[in-house]
Structure formats: structure tokens, C-alpha cells
Design goal:
This protein is an alpha+beta fold. It has 6 helices and 12 strands. The protein folds into 2 domains: 205 residues, Chloramphenicol Acetyltransferase (2-Layer Sandwich), CATH 3.30.559; 103 residues, Chloramphenicol acetyltransferase-like domain (Chloramphenicol Acetyltransferase), CATH 3.30.559.10. Strand 1 and strand 2 form a beta hairpin.
Length: 338
């Protein structure tokens, strides 16, 4: 695996510069022997919208003093805990294959990728520059190891631990989305954390059970699924005219937004999710100047773990979401969904 040994992050919002030194990437597999087998993903995990890698980054403070103090080596602790966690979660150390009908399966080969690095910066300096997305040095804290970025026949999991000068560290992870949704990856990361802290086993035992979410044969949809309708081309502005910003809504902001909403039938009040989703949806529709007569869509991924009839077991870490779609013509408030 070829990679540069040293890279400079020139700025975080033009206020800080630091160097990152990587050690050679290594394959970290399960700490003990696991089954060498092929496991099918669920039918909902075959969809094209999940075939990409999701990055995460978490920042941790040190226990005080410099990195060489008695705080221990976070990279070594995470590497050990990762190997232990991959024993019950061994499919995450596999490779994704495609079989007949574009069906996805996991070849459980027992290989994950781990990167260890050091950054010449303190967490306080990074915090002062801002930790909200878009984070301009993400490629330094989660190195794109050559041969790891594909969806098929590539590592499903990439982990990098970067030690900071203050004794803190950065834990960054990239995961193939076909394997887990947000709840599933948090469950796995929690297992790594528990094992790193010395627990003998994760408090939640993982469950595969992907067949639970397979389609009926033959499929019997009971209503139109507009979330999968073709989307007409959107007249996006040129890339140079687009910027990314992070907005934080405080409790006071949310209260002000809700205050301006009409009272719903029966006196029901909008939830925080409904209020913010409607606000962002309307703002986006107005900004894109979607022509009258065309639908403005809002698609939301809704978790189904709480649906009793599905019978998903505790510890299920696969994708357990269904997309819901709301459509209305701009402008003006939305009426009934069509």
C-alpha cells in the first residue's frame, strides 16, 4: 500500500497549520479465528443509494500532560480493541462481492485496514479554528489508503487513530454503508470503546439476521413508492457559486421557528424534526427556484427497528431504514401527499 509519510494541513479556516505523519497502513483482522464464509446482505442493502463509504471523525481530550505521559497509547488501545470487536463483528472485516442479479454478499476474509498517525497540533488549537463541517483537513485525519476506496472487493472498514501533542487523539472511521446504518455503526463503535476500556465483551451482542429484511417473493408493494421515482435534473448553480456552511439551531431558535407555524388540526403541535425539516425544505426549494408545476420532494430515512411485526433482534447492526417521500408543488404550504 503506497502512501506519503508526511502531509501538511495548510489551514483550518486559514488560522492553523500542522503536519501529520502516518505509519504504514496495516491489516487488522479479528483477534481470534472466525468463520470463513459468505453471508448475504438483506435485499434493502442491495440498493444503489447505499453503495458508498460513510466517514466519521471523533475528537478526544487527553488526560493531561503531553502525549508521552502515563495516559498510554490510544492507537495501541484502539488497535487491540478493534481486533477484539471484529471477533463477533467478523463480517465487517470482509470484502463485498456481487453475485447473480447484483445481489451483494460478504466474503468474510478477516481483513480490516488500520492507520496510525501523529499530528503536530493540540486539540485546543483545532477547537479554536472550528470543528464544524466542512472540516478542511479530513483527508489528513482519515487517509485514503490506496485500494481501499471501492465498494466491491475492497476493505469494508478503514480506521485511523491520530495522536495529538496534548495527549488527546482523533478517531476516524470510514465504513461501507451497505453493511450498517447509523445505529449499527454506533453499536460497533461502542463495542470497540467498551473493549478498549477493558470490558471482557461488548454489552450488546451483535445479530446478523439480514434475511429478516428480504423482499417477499414475488414482491407485493401495496402503494406507490415515489421515493424511487426518477428525479428530473435540478438546475444547480455552478460549483464555484456553491458553499457549505454549518448551522446550529439552539432551543431558542427552534422555539422561534415553531412559534411562526400554524396550529395543526386538533391542536397538535409540530415536533422539532418536523419544524426544522419543513424550514430547510422550503429554503432549499426557494433557493433552487424550482419551476411551478414540478414537485419539490422531501425524502426522509425512517428507522424500522421499533416495528414489532418485523421481529428484528436486539443487536441487529445492518441497515434497518425505509425511505419515506413527501411531495408538493412549490411555492406555498404543502397539502396532502400525492
Amino acid at each position: 500500500l503506497n502512501h506519503p509519510k508526511l502531509s501538511l494541513c495548510p489551514s483550518l479556516i486559514m488560522t492553523i497549520a500542522f503536519a501529520v505523519r502516518w505509519r504504514d497502513p496495516e491489516l487488522v483482522g479479528p483477534a481470534r479465528k472466525t468463520p470463513r464464509e459468505t453471508k448475504r446482505l438483506s435485499d434493502i442493502e442491495d440498493q444503489a443509494g447505499l453503495r458508498w463509504h460513510v466517514p466519521f471523525v471523533l475528537f478526544y481530550r487527553g488526560r493531561g500532560g503531553d502525549a508521552g505521559a502515563d495516559a498510554g497509547d490510544p492507537a495501541a488501545a484502539v488497535r487491540r480493541a478493534l481486533g477484539e470487536a471484529l471477533v463477533p463483528y467478523y463480517p465487517l472485516a470482509g470484502r463485498l462481492r456481487e453475485v447473480e442479479g447484483r445481489k451483494l454478499v460478504v466474503d468474510c476474509t478477516g481483513e480490516g485496514v488500520f492507520v496510525e498517525a501523529d499530528a503536530d497540533v493540540r486539540l485546543a488549537e483545532v477547537e479554536a479554528a472550528g470543528l464544524t463541517p466542512p472540516f478542511p483537513c479530513m483527508d489528513q485525519l482519515l487517509f485514503d489508503v490506496e485500494g481501499s476506496g471501492g465498494v466491491l472487493n475492497c476493505p469494508l472498514l478503514l480506521v485511523q487513530v491520530t495522536r495529538l501533542r496534548c495527549g488527546g487523539f482523533v478517531f476516524a472511521l470510514r465504513l461501507n454503508h451497505t453493511m450498517c446504518d447509523a445505529v449499527g455503526i454506533v453499536q460497533f463503535m461502542s463495542a470497540v470503546g467498551e473493549l478498549a476500556r477493558g470490558l471482557p465483551a461488548p454489552t450488546v451482542a451483535p445479530a446478523w439476521s439480514r434475511e429478516t429484511l428480504d423482499a417477499r417473493s414475488p414482491p407485493r408493494p401495496s402503494f406507490p413508492h415515489h421515493e424511487y421515482d426518477p428525479v428530473p435534473p435540478t438546475p444547480f448553480p455552478p460549483p464555484g457559486d456553491m458553499v457549505m456552511r454549518t448551522f446550529t439551531f439552539s432551543p431558542a431558535d427552534v422555539a422561534a421557528i415553531k412559534k411562526g407555524l400554524p396550529v395543526q388540526r386538533g391542536g397538535k403541535k409540530a415536533t422539532t424534526f418536523e419544524a426544522l425539516a419543513a424550514l430547510i425544505w422550503r429554503a432549499r426549494t426557494a433557493a433552487l427556484e424550482i419551476p411551478a408545476g414540478e414537485d419539490a420532494r422531501l425524502v426522509v430515512a425512517a428507522g424500522v427497528r421499533g416495528v414489532r411485526d418485523l421481529g428484528l433482534p436486539a443487536g441487529y447492526y445492518g441497515n434497518a431504514c425505509a425511505c419515506t417521500c413527501r411531495r408538493c408543488p412549490p411555492p406555498g404550504p404543502c397539502g396532502a401527499s400525492r
